[in-house]
Q: What sequence folds into this?
């Protein structure tokens, strides 16, 4: 799941406490991502138990204790594994794909091409599906407009992916 990846990446940059992790993710992704406490803290607890991060208590006078999280060597390996764990299901979700593309400097050329081609195949299938749906809505102007817009988005992303593939191979 991409939230695991985002949390680990924030800790990899520098040791942080939970609120800092949340704010940094939201700052980087803006409206695309809201990290709530019910997701963040159980994930941090799980990562601590797995040994991919460490947790150090920072005692504060007159305030609750603050815990600072730091990445371990196992955590750095987990980041690479999470980037590489890109499935056909992930290829259907633009945010999963975009986050991985933004982290391509962490993985091999072969893995980059695999991820790009998986998304490309998914988008090509989406275009075929949209074309079929367009045939069934000849009298529905607004539905056709939505489908037309979806097609233009998919085609634009395919052009961009082809360019990324050329850059990755070159």
A:
């Amino acid at each position: 799941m991409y939230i695991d990846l985002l949390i680990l990446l924030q800790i990899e940059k520098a040791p942080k406490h939970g609120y800092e992790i949340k704010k940094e993710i939201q700052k980087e992704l803006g409206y695309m991502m809201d990290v709530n406490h019910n997701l963040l803290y159980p994930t941090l607890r799980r990562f601590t138990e797995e040994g991919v991060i460490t947790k150090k208590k920072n005692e504060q006078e007159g305030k609750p204790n603050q815990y600072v999280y730091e990445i371990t060597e196992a955590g750095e390996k987990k980041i690479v594994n999470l980037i590489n764990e890109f499935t056909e299901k992930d290829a259907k979700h633009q945010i999963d794909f975009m986050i991985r593309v933004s982290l391509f400097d962490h993985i091999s050329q072969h893995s980059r091409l695999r991820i790009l081609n998986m998304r490309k195949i998914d988008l090509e299938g989406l275009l075929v599906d949209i074309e079929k749906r367009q045939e069934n809505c000849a009298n529905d102007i607004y539905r056709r407009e939505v489908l037309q817009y979806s097609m233009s988005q998919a085609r634009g992303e395919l052009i961009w992916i082809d360019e990324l593939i050329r850059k990755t191979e070159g």
In short: Strands lie at 16-17, 53-58, 66-71.
